[in-house]
Amino acid sequence: MGVDISLAFFVTWLAGSVRLGGPLLLAATGEIYSERSGVVNVGIEGTILLGALASFLASLLTGSPWPGLPAALLAGVLSNLFLAWLYVTVQANQVVVGITFNLLATGLTSYLYRALLGTGAQPSSIAMLPDLNVAALSNLPVLGPILFAQPLMLYVTLAIVAGASWLLFHRRFGLNLRAVGENPKAAAAAGISVVRMRYVGVMASGAGAGLAGAYLMLCQIGLFRDTIVSGHGFIALAIVIVGRWRPWPAAVAAFAFGAADALPISLQMLNLPVPPQVFLALPYVLTVLAMSGLFGRVAQPAALMARYERE
Amino acid sequence: MIRLERRLAPASSPRAVFLANAAAIFLALLAGGLLFLPFHVSPFTAYADLIGEAFFTPRGLGYTITEAAPLILVGLGTVFAWRSGFAYLGFQGSLLVGAVVSTWLALQVGAALPFALFLPLALAISFAAGGAWSGLVGFARARLGGTEVLVSLMMNYVAALLVQYLVTGPMRAAGDLPQTALLPRSTWLPVIFEGTRANIGIFVALAAAVVVGLILRGSVVGYELIVTGLSPRAARFGGIDVARRTLLSSVVCGGLGALAGPVEVLGNQHRLLDGVGEGLGFVGIVAALLGKLTVTGTVIASVLYGGLTVGGNAMQRHSGLPSSVILVIEALIVLLVLASDLLLVWRIAPARARTA
């Protein structure tokens, strides 16, 4: 009996870790492009929210979940074009721009939702994206629910991670992007456009964050509320740091944070006499500990957040 | 034809800076005004109503003052932290910690103590608790080499969950809603003008503004903090203990932000509930940014933003326009004011005739 409960507990927990880690990983992978080019994009928190609303509205209007993906992608890239302009062209303080943009996104999504659906509207439910459904794999004991009974988006995300790893470390584009983040003056002297690379980096992080919003919306939540992101964009920023600005290590970190996120849901099965808020605080406390410096400092891209003056 | 031309040196005259900022604010109001149109509200009358309601009616002005007080306190914390190079973003958490301890004090001893004794005590323990809360972040930065941006952001969520736990658990009063009992009337901040909501919270905020201004402008510690913020390297060469100054800055900034907790709870809500002071911690930061991280600028910007919130709520009641429009306008103003620096660096010049 006890063995059954603990096995069921671990299977649901690990399956939940992979499920909740997916959107975090997608946002973190996008952010790696931005930070490798020298820009910390704190605005991904708000971008995820914009992507979630865009995919919600697209799915609601068309009755199909698929248009939600391009809608979220477009919302992410366009909003981050504005952010890139502020980071790169205006050269404003990146943290200031990021948190103010998050406030803007909170206000804008809340306004749009109420403007389009009415203030007293019942939360409408939408068509969701399917899970991978290969019965032979999903029905495997233990491994089935953890690795295979997952949303299609998870496998898309893993493909994006593989693509990012290849682009950043095996193509000239990645070399140029990283050069701009390490030593913009030298990169410029070698004929690389620092400004263009940073715009590309920030907009790539917008694409990742927008799609992460769609992932959250179309695979997990299905309802729009102002609080659906609640700090997970910031957690994705921490994942980038823990993953040392590399996609695959970031994937490991993302599933670890997903595990912290999934624990409260699985623990409900055990009926522990502990207030739920203790477990709900877990991903945030984990991030605090990871970023507190207790576990040593890490070498970040050398020109991260530094102003760049064209000669 | 016209073209953009880089100025030899950025324009820095007060007039140029004022004009660039005014253009940015105008553009932000214009863009925000577009959001009024789907509700068949003309932006011009809407802005006139909004400002009229918030600043030119006694009732509205009372609300504006009530809204501005916590924003000023959070804004002052921002000025203190950011000027000394500590990018603290955890004011929402500090505010909640201050709200929790002052609620606890009011429920425990509020009815027994005279107000003249209770208020200083409530402010002192809020400052101490909020300062300890943010001091943890300062400790991580100064002694462990952590990053204060993400740590302080995450602690906001921890504080929100702490409040949620307290009002659903140990501090919950009997009844349907997760909230504490109403605080004893003797602990409420007294109203300044009968018939309005304006309470003495604004005096707490203004007194704090004077103290912060004096410390930053007229004391050795303030000088050392600002040098630390401008260049930690230069400060170290000048014999300033940078780590200790960062620690001090972190404690004081969170303490200031935490004062917004009792001001909001004792002056406005009169009880602790889930979501108390929602958003104040960030709007206060943004107000300080609009005030260019100066004490006077922060006070003015906080009153302005407090008024926008009040006017926005009134507009939602009158025309159904979601009050979240105000958040969009407030954020857009700051972003475009930042961008208006471009106007100081570049100028529009008529194209010169080409010479062969």
Architecture overview:
The complex is a heterodimer of chains A (311) and B (356). Chain A has 311 residues and is mostly helical. Helices cover 71% and strands 0% of the residues of chain A. Chain A has helices at 2-36, 44-62, 68-89, 94-117, 135-138, 143-148, 152-170, 172-182, 184-189, 194-221, 232-242, 247-267, 276-280, 282-291. Chain B has a two-stranded antiparallel sheet. The model of chain B has no long low-confidence stretch (mean pLDDT 90).
Q: Can you give keywords for this protein?
A:
heterodimer, A: 311 residues, mainly alpha, globular, B: 356 residues, two-stranded antiparallel sheet, 2 strands
Entry summary:
The complex is a heterodimer of chains A (311) and B (356). Chain A is 71% helix and 0% strand.
**Oligomeric assembly:** heterodimer
Strand content of chain A: under 5%
Secondary structural class of chain A: mainly alpha
**Mean pLDDT level of chain A:** 89
The helix/strand series of chain A, from N terminus to C terminus, equals: HHHHHHHHHHHHHH
Give the fraction of residues assigned to helices of chain B. over 70%
SSE layout and pairing:
The complex is a heterodimer of chains A (311) and B (356).
Chain A: H1 2-36, H2 44-62, H3 68-89, H4 94-117, H5 135-138, H6 143-148, H7 152-170, H8 172-182, H9 184-189, H10 194-221, H11 232-242, H12 247-267, H13 276-280, H14 282-291
Chain B: E1 2-6, H1 14-34, H2 43-55, H3 58-83, H4 91-109, H5 115-144, H6 148-168, H7 201-218, H8 220-230, H9 232-237, H10 242-269, H11 280-290, H12 295-319, H13 324-339, H14 341-345, E2 346-350
Antiparallel strand pairs in B: 1-2
Helix pairs in contact in B: 1-13, 2-3, 2-12, 3-7, 3-10, 3-11, 3-12, 4-5, 4-6, 4-10, 4-11, 5-10, 7-8, 7-10, 8-10, 11-12, 11-13, 12-13
